[in-house]
Amino acid sequence: MKVLLSIKPEYANKIFDGTKKFEFRKVIFNSDVKTVVVYASSPVQQVIGEFEIDNILSFDPNKIWKLTKKDSGISADFFFEYFADRDIAHAIKIKKFKRYKKPLSIREDFNAFPPQSYIYLPIKK
Q1: For residues 43 and 13, is the Cβ–Cβ distance under 8 A?
Q2: 21 CA to centre of own chain
Q3: Which site in 6, 11, 20, 119 is 20 to 30 Å from 74, CA atoms measured?
Q4: Phi then psi for 100, rounded to 5 degrees?
């Protein structure tokens, strides 16, 4: 199964240049998701690539930060502000990524609207 995630362009670009090896979420999708399709949010507003999930870590924010900070691609201040009101933080470990040669339109190519967090996508055969 695939999900489409909205990610700020700054962080989406870090995923595809290999400097961000974890994507952080307050709410996580179900465990049978294998691939994340990346929608770079405003001002880009395009689907720019995808990555395979290695695994998903779910612990308290302090433990997640200790495990991921070296490859987080974000600052500690940003991380702890993002998870300030949460007991559990989720870190999606990126296994393999592929940036599309030509970005896709979320509406035309996926018949979807930009998600606040994520939406499930059917796998095309």
Answers
A1: no
A2: 10
A3: 119
A4: -70, 140
Task: For 101-119, write each residue's pLDDT tens digit.
Answer: 999 999 999 988 888 889 9
> What is the C-alpha separation between 51 and 38, in angstroms, rounded?
8
Q: How many Cβ atoms are within 10 Å of 3's Cβ, its own excluded?
A: 21
Write the CATH number for 77. Answer: 2.30.130.30
For 92, the domain range is 2-121
DSSP 69: G
% residues pLDDT > 70 (the chain)? 98
Place of tokens 């870090």: 14
User: Do 15 and 38 form a contact (C-beta atoms < 8 A)?
Assistant: yes
pLDDT in tens, 57-87: 999 999 999 999 999 999 999 999 999 999 9
Q: Which two tokens stand for residue 11?
A: 């962080």
